[in-house]
Amino acid sequence: MAGKMAGCAPSSNPQASRSSEPLRTPVHAMANSERLSAPGCWAACSNFSRTRQGILLFAEIILCLVILICFGALTSGYSSLSVTEMIFATLFFVVYMCDLHTKIQIINWPWSNFFRTLVAVILYLITSIVVLVERGNHSKIVAGVLGLIPACLFGYDAYITFPLQQQRHTAAPTDPADGPT
């Protein structure tokens, strides 16, 4: 019985337990894959954040956060717009950063981005005008003016997104195939 237990017990000799091969367990393989995928994810994030669309989306997220603070000081009704637009801008940032817009073909991402920015322009303009028209203290004036800045930024984003959609479509030939008559 002691012989059977000695065969099952791990060796107490440190030389026998070491081997020249690295451990090939699933845990080690997963750790290696995470280590290799992390720089790729960081590279994708930093590469996208240097593009014009990445800079615009990042600026929209930051401005929505600033406007959330300014409008939140006034009343909670105005801050819901900034929260919603910040969530949508973050969603589109992640989708474009991870290149999901090419993998998820159900949604037309450029047109969705265009309509998102167009709606944001309209809502920020309305909200800013309402805040500016209300009689109040200086914080309302500052919040109203600061609300016009993201409206301009979202408008610029909508402007540069829409012509990209126009360039993808080619015009149908209008000349008859038989020649002039």
From TrEMBL:
Residues annotated as domain MARVEL: 48-166
UniProt feature, compositional bias: Polar residues: 10-22
Primary location recorded for the protein, binned into one broad class: membrane
Regions crossing the membrane: 55-74, 86-102, 114-133, 139-159
Entry membrane topology: Multi-pass membrane protein
Region ranges (Disordered): 1-22
Coiled coil: none
UniProt KW keywords: Membrane, Transmembrane, Transmembrane helix
Compartments where located: Membrane
InterPro entries the UniProt entry points to: Marvel, MARVEL-CKLF_proteins
GO CC terms of this entry: membrane
Protein purpose: May play a role in cell differentiation in the intestinal epithelium.
Name used for this protein in its record: Proteolipid protein 2
Source species of the chain: Balaenoptera musculus (Blue whale)
Lineage: Eukaryota, Metazoa, Chordata, Craniata, Vertebrata
